[in-house]
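Exercise 7b. Backbone tokens:
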């Protein structure tokens, strides 16, 4: 299936609470069901240490490539709904979470507002994102 007028979007998936692999699998499935969106490819899954030195379990991380016609804020709202459906509660920044979905890059777009920054400001500092993007660059 192709999505006419779609832009390429990279979304990072992370989980360190509960069934981590199950949360990532459910997220991939939900992303593939979004309207006017196609899941193109997914990177391998890797385990990483928590950021900012917080005492918490390690994360499973993965990056997916989407083709979507959804506008950035509409995609963000959809990602947050998927997170909530998997039990995500936003409390502590960089704290433990069942599921974290971040828009890392959205085509060539740049967005800078209080709710959304694209490209994601942490991209240069997250080596695992760099590896995952490199893996998906071939898709």
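Sequence design result:
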């Amino acid at each position: 299936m192709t999505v006419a007028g779609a832009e390429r979007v990279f979304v990072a998936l992370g989980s360190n609470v509960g069934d981590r692999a199950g949360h990532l699998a459910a997220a991939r499935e939900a992303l593939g069901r979004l309207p006017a969106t196609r899941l193109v490819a997914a990177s391998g899954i890797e385990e990483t240490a928590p950021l900012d030195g917080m005492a918490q379990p390690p994360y499973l991380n993965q990056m997916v490539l989407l083709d979507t016609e959804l506008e950035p804020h509409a995609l963000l709202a959809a990602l947050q709904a998927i997170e909530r459906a998997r039990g995500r509660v936003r409390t502590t920044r960089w704290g433990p979470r069942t599921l974290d979905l971040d828009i890392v890059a959205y085509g060539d777009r740049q967005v800078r507002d209080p709710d959304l920054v694209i490209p994601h400001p942490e991209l240069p500092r997250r080596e695992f994102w760099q590896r995952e993007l490199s893996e998906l660059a071939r898709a």
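Instructor comment: The first helix runs from residue 20 to 32. The longest strand covers residues 59-68.
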